[in-house]
Write the C-alpha cells for this entry.
Amino acid sequence: MLDRFRARDKSKTYFVTLTVTDKLFVFATDYHKLVIVDSLCYCQKQLGLEINAWCLMGNHLHMLCSVKGEFDLPTIIQRFKRHTTKILLASYRDEPKNPGNRKIDRFAERAKSLKTQDNKIWDNGYHALEMHTPELAWKKMQYIHQNPVKAGMVEYAEDYVYSSAQAYKTNSNPQNCILRITFL
C-alpha cells in the first residue's frame, strides 16, 4: 500500500475506504449489512472510532472518521475487519442458499495466494486520505452520500438506509448516526 494513504496522525480526520476482495458484492442482505453496522457501533463505543459520515455499499465501505482514545485507526480497522470476516464467513456457511457461499471459494483462493491462513473478505489495508481542510471534508462527505444515488439504488441520498445522509438531512446528531441504524 502506498504510504501516503495511511492514517498516521490520531488528531486528524480521514476519508477511509475499505474494499472487499476482488470487489465481490458480499453485503447483499440486511443481515450482512447489519453485521457491518453493529461492528462499527462497537468500534465507536469501545475503541473510540468517531464517524462523521459513512456509507456501506455492496462491496465497500466509505467513512469520514477520526479516533479519540487509546487506539489508532489502523488498529481499529484491523480489529473491525477481522471480526466482520469471522461473522460473515460463519453466516455464509450456515445458510446453504446464501449467495455468499459461492464466494467463499474466492475468499479462500485469495487467502492462499496471499499465504494467509484465514479466508480474505477484505482487501489488505485500507485507503485513507487526510482531510486538510473543511472544504475537502465536505466534498468527501458529499461523495460518500452520493454513492447509492450514483449506483442507481435510490433517487435521493437520504433514502439510503445504510448511510449517514439521512442524519445530515434531518440535522439529527450526525456523529452518532451509525448508532441509529441498529434499531431498524
Notes: DSSP finds six helices and four strands in the chain. The mean pLDDT is 81. Residues 3-183 form a domain with the Alpha-Beta Plaits fold (CATH 3.30.70.1290).
